[in-house]
Amino acid sequence: MYSTQGAKGSESTALGTVEAKAKYDFINIPIMAKYYVVDGLAIEAGPYVGFLMKAENELSGGSLTGSQDIKDNMNSVDFGLGLGASYSLSNGFFGGARYNLGLTDLPKENDGDAIKNGVIQVSVGYKF
Asked: What is the DSSP letter of 46?
């Protein structure tokens, strides 16, 4: 599963407000156990492993405008847990939602608070 993840924020400095966006691209491989509560409705839970494909920071504001590749500063593998639910209709259409909680600190070296993934995924599809 290809997943685009990230965060954004802003900070006021003496030079003005600087906006930052962190963008991470992962290939996530979930291993989910599914339990059908009633016909069509299932809950699912299990681990996943994610492989970092791309990581960059984008800064805008004042003289700090630009993009920087930060993949070498990040852990290349993310482990986590997923929890969700899905519903399948008898005509083949289905939908689902899942929350993935990352357990790996993303930066290789981090002196501050831990930075981990927390992702909400929504899916729609058709089984044939």
From this structure: E
pTM of this prediction?
A: 0.81
- Calpha distance 106→114 (Å, rounded): 8
Contact 54, 68 (CB under 8 A): no
Q: Residue 61 has what DSSP assignment?
A: S
- Which positions ≥6 away from 112 have C-beta within 8 Å? none
Count the residues in the chain.
Answer: 128
Domain spans of the chain, in order of start? 2-126
Gyration radius of the chain's alpha carbons: 18
What is the widest separation between alpha-carbon atoms in the chain? 60
pLDDT tens string 89-123 = 999 999 999 999 999 999 988 887 888 999 999 99
